[in-house]
Design a protein that fits this description.
The chain has helices at about 1-30, 65-70, 135-145, 165-170, and strands at about 30, 35-40, 40-55, 80, 85-95, 115, 120-125, 150, 155-160, 175-180, 195-200. By secondary structure, the protein is of the alpha+beta class. It has three domains: about 30-95, no CATH class; about 95-130, no CATH class; about 140-200, no CATH class. A four-stranded antiparallel beta sheet has the order 8-9-11-10. A hairpin with a 4-residue loop joins β8 (about 150) and β9 (about 155-160). The radius of gyration is 32 Å and the shape is elongated. The termini are far apart.
């Protein structure tokens, strides 16, 4: 009696696992250009013919994949009508491209939008941070001196800290009422916990 109960539980668990794997496969499926549902990253651009049957066909929907292939885990086998015969085929698997696998000589990841900026000596995204030419940097440095500010070439910014918020914004600057005292040296071992009024020009 106990043995029958144990076998019943095993069978129920097996059926549940089979159903879960079936639904998981359905969620992962994508539609091939031929209208055939395939697991993600598989494509019928290339395929390997595993078996050619004697069953004649005019279209792939007339072909049924034998159950002996459906239970295999090494490939999502399907049946195609090739030369008017049903064939069991294994679709081609294409590994997904890994972002970051295209670093240039400076270590900049092009697929993530980074490119090398010579003047700043670092990788950056140009839409987040402009890479200015030497001439532009010199002009900005001169302009910063005229504003009686301090020029920070690595960051490419000019700070004029004696302006009020209204004056800063009127001149087109970015006002910060509580900037860190270590804003230009974030890795400093000691940093005073005080607010610094800054007006930054980029």
């Amino acid at each position: 009696m106990q043995r029958k109960t144990f076998l019943s539980i095993v069978i129920i668990i097996f059926i549940i696992l089979l159903l879960l794997s079936f639904f998981f496969c359905l969620e992962k499926n994508n539609i091939d250009k031929n209208g055939i549902s395939l697991p993600i990253n598989y494509s019928l651009d290339n395929y390997k013919i595993e078996e050619t049957s004697d069953i004649s066909c005019k279209k792939s929907s007339e072909c049924i994949t034998p159950s002996s292939y459906l239970i295999r885990s090494n490939c999502p086998y399907i049946s195609l009508c090739i030369d008017q015969k049903c064939n069991v085929v294994c679709p081609d698997y294409k590994a997904p491209e890994i972002v970051g696998g295209d670093k240039d000589i400076h270590g900049c990841i092009g697929s993530a939008g980074y490119s090398w900026c010579e003047i700043k000596n670092k990788c950056l995204r140009t839409w987040e941070e402009a890479c200015k030419s030497v001439t532009d940097m010199i002009k900005k440095s001169d302009s910063c001196a005229q504003k009686e500010g301090v020029w920070y070439p690595i960051e490419g910014i000019c700070e004029v800290n004696q302006l009020s918020e209204s004056q800063c914004k009127a001149f087109g600057g970015e006002f910060n009422g509580c900037a860190s005292a270590c804003r230009h040296n974030p890795e400093a071992e000691m940093c005073t916990m005080q607010c610094v009024l800054t007006c930054t020009f980029r």
